[in-house]
Specification:
The structure is a single chain. Strands 1-6-5-4-3-2 form a 6-stranded mixed beta sheet, covered by helices on one side. A hairpin with a 3-residue loop joins strand 4 and strand 5 (101-108). With 157 residues, it is of the alpha/beta class. The protein contains 3 helices and 6 strands. It has one domain (3-121).
Length: 157
C-alpha cells in the first residue's frame, strides 16, 4: 500500500486498527512513534546496484491503556512528515515489535489495516546459479504419439 492510499482510507474510518496475519490485533493503545522515509542503497549478489525507498511507520505499545490513535491524528502525523521530510508516495513498511522488530507490508481489508509478513529473496537468481523452477505437469494429461511409444511385444524394451 502506498502513502497516498492510506491517506485516502483514513478519511473514511472512525478508528485505526492493525491486525497481524495470524489474526492477532495490535493493542488499541498503540502509538505511531515514527513516520519517515527509508532509503536503501545496496548491491545484490549479481553485482547490480539497487536503490529502494519505503515510507516507514513504527508502531509501539505503551502502558497508557486509555490512548487511542484516531484517523485524523494519524493523517496529521503523515502530513507533518511530508512537509518536514519531503517523503515520497512510496510503499509503506510497518515496523512492529514482537520477539524482535518485525517489518511488514501493509494492506487493507475494508475495515482493518493488515500487517503482511515480508520475506527475503535473491534478486539475481540468474547470476547465483539458482535453477529455474521446473514446469509441473500432470502425467495423465500427456498424449502418446505412436512413434515414441513402447508397446508390449514391440522389442523396444
Amino acid at each position: 500500500m502506498k502513502l497516498s492510499e492510506i491517506k485516502q482510507i483514513l478519511t473514511t474510518l472512525d478508528n485505526v486498527e492493525f491486525q497481524l496475519e495470524n489474526g492477532t490485533f495490535v493493542p488499541e493503545h498503540f502509538h505511531v512513534t515514527e513516520v519517515g522515509q527509508i532509503t536503501k542503497n545496496f548491491i545484490d549478489c549479481g553485482g547490480v546496484i539497487r536503490n529502494e525507498k519505503v515510507v516507514n511507520f513504527q508502531l509501539w505499545n505503551a502502558d497508557d491503556y486509555e490512548h487511542r490513535l484516531k484517523p485524523g491524528k494519524l493523517l496529521d502525523i503523515i502530513k507533518l512528515s511530508e512537509e518536514k521530510l519531503a517523503i515520497e508516495d512510496a510503499e509503506i513498511e510497518v515496523e512492529y515489535q514482537s520477539d524482535t522488530i518485525g517489518k511488514y507490508d501493509l494492506a487493507f481489508n475494508g475495515q482493518t489495516f493488515l500487517l503482511k509478513s515480508k520475506t527475503t529473496t535473491c534478486l539475481a537468481q540468474d547470476a547465483c546459479g539458482i535453477p529455474a523452477e521446473k514446469q509441473k505437469r500432470n502425467l495423465s494429461t500427456l498424449t502418446i504419439s505412436g512413434s515414441s511409444c513402447c508397446t508390449p511385444g514391440s522389442g523396444c524394451c
